[in-house]
Design goal:
With 258 residues, the protein is mainly alpha-helical. It has 14 helices and six strands. The strands form two sheets. It has a three-stranded antiparallel sheet with strand order 1-2-3, with no helix packed on it. The chain starts with a strand and ends with a helix. Pathway: Protein modification; protein ubiquitination.
Length: 258
């Protein structure tokens, strides 16, 4: 696994090991690998753990319904099981695009809002058509695609629109997916808009990330048009920003005085 080398010293022999990863020599006081390789391996392990957690979450989301789960129940009910598995059409009322077809069973298993619509005698259940306002055809199609695959290519506008739709229909997995993407895109140019959006849609991680960037760039951000718009539209949020900023200043001063 490793090679030993011995160098002469006036006081004692120093045994050095050769790292099994990078092949560089390191002191025998270290164990197994050199410090740099050990730290790199630890970072890789954490990254793999995060990827595994994400995959588990995706599997859980996609496995939340099986056609066998309700088979016997629906066979025993007055309606046939075929009605439960029939298609449904979703229509984006904002344009004249074609409807997006979907399967009732998938919608019911992914969203408690769709479940309430389609398992009761609501109009959507009787007509087999669900009208969705304030959404474009492309966003609606991406939304349905995600319900089937737990994957969708994101841009910043698409992530915003899908997060709103995910919140409306309580698709937590999609909301988290979009929020994570948006959080990674927060910068000095969009921090104020992101902060206001996160507050409106209860996106905690995006809110924290945006607020952090805002507070780090207060001198620049207060000159932006987005800041002026926020002062006019929602002064309560501006007060919240300054309260957080002042609290940070107090904490920094207290820490430096110790």
């Amino acid at each position: 696994m490793y090679n030993q080398t011995v160098s002469n010293s006036t006081s004692k022999n120093v045994v050095k090991m050769r790292c099994v990863s990078c092949k560089e020599e390191y002191q025998d006081s270290d164990a197994g690998t050199c410090k740099e390789c050990y730290e790199e391996a630890s970072e890789t392990e954490e990254e793999l753990k995060r990827e595994i957690d994400e995959l588990k979450s995706k599997v859980s989301f996609l496995s939340s319904w099986s056609p066998f789960d309700d088979h016997h129940h629906h066979l025993s009910s007055s309606s046939s099981s075929s009605s439960f598995f029939s298609d449904v059409l979703l229509v984006a009322t904002d344009d004249e695009s074609p409807p997006v077809p979907a399967n009732k069973a998938v919608l019911v298993s992914r969203s408690p809002v769709f479940k309430a619509m389609l398992e009761t005698e609501m109009e959507e259940s009787r007509s087999g058509t669900i009208k969705i306002s304030d959404v474009s055809y492309n966003v609606l199609r991406s939304f349905i695609h995600y319900l089937y695959t737990a994957e969708v290519p994101l841009t910043e506008p698409m992530a915003c629109d899908l997060l709103v739709l995910a919140e409306r229909y309580q698709v937590k997995h999609l909301k988290s997916y979009c929020e994570k993407f948006m959080t990674s895109k927060v910068n000095g140019e969009n921090a104020i808009v992101s902060f206001a959006f996160a507050n409106q849609h209860n996106a905690k991680h995006l809110l924290e990330a945006s607020l952090s960037v805002v507070m780090d760039n207060m001198d620049k951000l207060t000159k932006q048009d987005d800041y002026k718009d926020l002062v006019e539209k929602d002064p309560r949020l501006v007060v919240g920003i300054y309260e957080a900023y002042l609290a940070k200043q107090v904490n920094t001063a207290a820490a430096s005085s110790k």
